From TrEMBL:
Catalytic activity: N-(5-phospho-beta-D-ribosyl)anthranilate = 1-(2-carboxyphenylamino)-1-deoxy-D-ribulose 5-phosphate
Stated name of the protein: N-(5'-phosphoribosyl)anthranilate isomerase
Pathway terms, separated by semicolons: Amino-acid biosynthesis; L-tryptophan biosynthesis; L-tryptophan from chorismate: step 3/5
Domain N-(5'phosphoribosyl) anthranilate isomerase (PRAI) per the UniProt entry, residue ranges: 5-200
Keywords for the protein's UniProt record, in alphabetical order: Amino-acid biosynthesis, Aromatic amino acid biosynthesis, Isomerase, Tryptophan biosynthesis
Keyword set includes rRNA-binding: no
Record flagged with keyword Isomerase: yes
A GO molecular function held by the record: phosphoribosylanthranilate isomerase activity
Enzyme Commission numbers on file: 5.3.1.24
Pfam families cross-referenced by the UniProt entry: PRAI (PF00697)
């Protein structure tokens, strides 16, 4: 099966359209104010309204209030929620929208047990662990640590770029890959050539 691609940290329409033109399946919008990729909901709304059909839009949250998630869902019409903090399964499941849960690969994490805990998640995203930083570190983790018996679609993230994504796909065989820093010109600004190269490499791996 073809590996799906999510390009995260979209803040500009031109980056969104470049990602779509290159074949990205999903676009991520970061609604976590401390992130350099934070996008105002009104800006995300304007971008989303100009997208062609059949592109999945994803809202990324880190320990957001219920009210914030609901407000952004209503304003942007986002398709899918990505919870990248310490949210509980009950918290994640309360919204009227499908979600996937990000797990950070801390030294003692039990990925299989955590995946079972988030039984209603549509997928599990695995990201690098750096204490005190919820994500978007640009760092990869040891893919050998990924258990083979995860019973949900696996989204691989963390330090992916054009130089390592083929190896990552062939080793891990994820349902999807998620990239942010690896296709940027500067934090929050995508580089169209890097997006194209990344997408070409994903196609080569499949
Ligand atoms: O992108 C961010 O700034 C961010 C902030 C807080 C939580 C997650 C964030 N991004 C997600 O982190 C992973 C890995 O990103 P990278 O490719 O290593 O830069 C990815 O899922 C982003 O969506």
């Amino acid at each position: 099966m073809r590996t799906r691609v999510k390009i995260c940290g979209i803040t500009r329409l031109e980056d969104a359209l470049a990602a779509v033109d290159s074949g990205a399946d999903a676009l991520g919008f970061v609604f976590y104010a401390p992130s350099p990729r934070f996008v105002e909901p009104a800006v995300a709304e304007a971008i989303i309204k100009q997208l062609p059909p059949f592109v999945t839009t994803v809202a990324l949250f880190v320990n957001a209030s219920v009210d914030q998630v609901q407000t952004i869902m209503a304003q942007t019409g986002i398709d899918l929620l990505q919870f990248h903090g310490d949210e509980s399964p009950e918290y994640c499941a309360q919204f009227d929208r499908p979600y996937f849960k990000a797990l950070r690969m801390s030294p003692d994490i039990d990925v299989v047990a955590e995946t079972k805990r988030f039984s209603l998640a549509r997928g599990i995203l695995l990201d690098a662990y750096r204490p005190g930083v919820p994500g978007g570190t640009g760092e990869a983790f040891d893919w050998e640590r990924i258990p083979s018996d995860i019973d949900k679609p696996l989204i691989l993230a963390g330090g992916l770029d054009q130089s390592n994504v083929v190896q990552a796909i062939r080793r891990v065989k994820p349902y999807a890959v998620d990239v942010s820093g690896g296709v940027e010109a500067a934090k929050g600004l995508k580089d169209c050539e890097k997006i194209t190269s990344f997408m070409n490499e994903v196609a080569r791996a499949n």
